């Protein structure tokens, strides 16, 4: 039994490391990942590596190659636009549902998150990971307070599939506009205007989509 537990833990460790590297652009779309390199790195058999590959394949991060490891999958601009269209509708709805449910402490937390984001230097590429994490925390609060348990799961899945592309576009985007959107959302929520808060969130998601689509048109290799 202990060996099985260690095996599962190792598989999860490999899975999390690979997904992190893919999401944050350390391994790029189209790049070949070989089993042998991972077995050497993690000092393990092929079993945990293949299981990690299978999970990443099911989530759309990898394409498995027979006897050759795997390749990081590519997503077409059309698919990304479709994902954002769904994200726009779902995140706006989450904000609308959450607004009447939010308490003063929740609004204070949103303000603190936005303040924390402002403090992160956006000129240094190394700050993108903490910036992204804080930004996701802002969005997650609405989803987890909206009263619909399924919407959080669905949005997390969509965001997981586009985060690696989003990370690359953040290298060339204007952060101030995103922060201003956040401030407008907080203001609408504070006033209890759910419809306005939802509309601002729609604009916010659409802005992110436009930035990413512009990036992909200039760097189609991603």
Terminal Cα span:
43 Å
Broad shape? elongated
Largest beta sheet: strand ordering: 1-3-2
Kindly name the structural category. Answer: mainly alpha
Q: Ranges with pLDDT <50 over ≥5 residues?
A: none
The overall strand count is 3
C-alpha Rg (nearest Å): 19 Å
Helix content: over 70%
Number of H/I helices: 9
Order of helices and strands: HEHHEEHHHHHH
Which percent band covers the strand fraction?
under 5%
Largest sheet: 3 strands, antiparallel
Topology, please?
Layout (H helix, E strand, L loop, with lengths): L1 H22 L8 E2 L1 H8 L3 H13 L3 E4 L3 E4 L4 H22 L5 H16 L8 H18 L3 H21 L5 H16 L3 H25 L4
Antiparallel strand pairs: 1-3, 2-3
How would you sum up this structure, described in words?
With 222 residues, the chain is mainly alpha-helical. It is built from 9 helices and 3 strands; from the N terminus they run H-E-H-H-E-E-H-H-H-H-H-H. It has helices at 2-23, 35-42, 46-58, 77-98, 104-119, 128-145, 149-169, 175-190, 194-218; strands at 32-33, 62-65, 69-72. The chain has a 3-stranded antiparallel sheet. Helix 4 (77-98) crosses helix 6 (128-145), helix 4 crosses helix 7 (149-169) and helix 5 packs antiparallel against helix 8. The longest helix is centred in the C-terminal third of the chain and has 25 residues, at 194-218. The radius of gyration is 19 Å and the shape is elongated. The termini are far apart.
């Amino acid at each position: 039994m202990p060996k099985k537990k260690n095996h599962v833990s190792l598989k999860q460790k490999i899975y999390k490391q690979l997904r992190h590297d893919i999401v944050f652009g350390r391994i790029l779309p189209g790049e070949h990942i070989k089993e042998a390199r991972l077995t050497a790195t993690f000092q393990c058999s092929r079993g945990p590596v293949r299981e990690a590959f299978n999970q990443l394949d099911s989530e759309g991060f990898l394409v498995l190659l027979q006897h050759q490891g795997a390749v990081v999958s590519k997503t077409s601009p059309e698919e990304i636009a479709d994902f954002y269209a769904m994200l726009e509708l779902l995140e706006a709805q989450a904000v609308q549902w959450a607004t009447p449910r939010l308490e003063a402490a929740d609004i204070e937390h949103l303000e603190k998150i936005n303040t924390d984001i402002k403090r992160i230097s956006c000129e240094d590429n190394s700050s993108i990971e903490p910036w992204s994490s804080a930004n996701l925390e802002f969005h997650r609060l609405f989803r987890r307070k909206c009263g619909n348990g399924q919407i959080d799961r669905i949005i997390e899945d969509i965001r997981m599939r586009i985060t690696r592309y989003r990370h690359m576009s953040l290298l060339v985007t204007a952060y101030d506009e995103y922060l201003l959107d956040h401030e407008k959302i907080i203001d609408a929520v504070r006033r209890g205007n759910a419809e306005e808060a939802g509309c601002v969130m729609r604009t916010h998601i659409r802005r992110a989509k436009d930035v990413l689509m512009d990036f992909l048109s200039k760097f189609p290799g991603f």
